[in-house]
Input
Amino acid sequence: MSFHYQYFFNPRLSALNLLFDQPRRIIFGPDSSKQCGFEAKRLGGKRSLLVTDINVEKSGLLNPIIESVERQEIKLEVYNKVAFEPTIESIRNAVEWARNTAPYDVIIGVGGGSVLDTAKMISNMLTNQGDPLEYLNPLEDKFKNPSLPKILIPTTAGTGSEVSNYAVVIEKESMFKTFAASSNLFAEVALVDPKLTLTCPPRVTASSLLDALGHNLEGLISKQSTPISDGLAIEATKLLLNFGLKAYNSPDDIEARSGTSMGALLGGMVIAYPWVGGPAILGHCLAEAFGPKFNIPHGMAVGISLPYILNFNLPACIEKMYFISQSIGLKEDGSSLKSLAKKLPYFILQLLSELEMPTRLKDINFPKSYLEPFAQYIVRERQHLYNLSKYNPRKLNEENVINLLNDMYEGVLE
Output
């Protein structure tokens, strides 16, 4: 019996030398959030801080979580002033408030990515001195002391922040996103309860889905990806594509919500692997720059970028994109690998339309006059923050990035 397996595009397996950390405990399933109190007690909790935002608090999602904590006779305080996007001002305010009301022994984050990232920063800034801004370096772990134990509970299926080692922050001056990176940012416990996503509005559901898809598809074509990340990312992509539209069109479908929650969870694990390149590659590099600058939700910005960066990178990873297209069931209608690989960007573009999301930069009032300066910023500065020369399949230069942005502006897949 013979079996031939070709592993596309990655470093040779015999050349791999991997080192990575992960969250200590992950609990997945409907109603798993009700285990929060038990987990807080297990972590030594006596006085806990629950970090959230006003919308999550008003929704009633916190009630069973708070009850579970109080049932364990743990004192609990709630901080609900987290901003919709994680600005440096919002995080500074949260850290200052927590320092003034400390001590705490367990931090609990309940919400979307902004809330979870804020909870991560609080748990570290209570054990490390200084300004949160001093710790924002994606290429270096700036935290010297271990964080307080933290329990992270997502209410959206997108960021995967509950299982990642990153905390995203928007800089005040540029309005671009940067982030802290550290194994100290991993949760001691991630509680992923799909029921908490049932109240997500359709637009949030769509935006979250696109963020998770970006993590997984960008992780798959990362120049340094390995069988570990690919195994998770390809299954996550299948889950997200199978259940994403169902969750969008039938928001009460708990099976669909569970599928997207699992896909987002796996995506968060994928981007935490050091060889994927952080939050991902070119798509997130672009989205985390123009999204906050033009007040575009993160997932929507990732979604706008995704089909175009897949198309841009295709010449450098035809085999990998062929494998992805084949894995998600796209049908071959030509004899070349490229003919099927090329279908993937068009498929994602069609998904954007079905989710009623913008498909072009001009749809979000991105000024055409800003295309060239933005391309220069990406090539001269921002790509180095993401170390794209190491992770992105295709090398960037000002000419090809300007062409890419023009395609994104007009909605063209050349």
Remarks:
- The chain has two domains: 26-197, 204-410.
- The radius of gyration is 21 Å.
- The chain has a mean pLDDT of 93.
- DSSP finds 16 helices and eight strands in the chain.
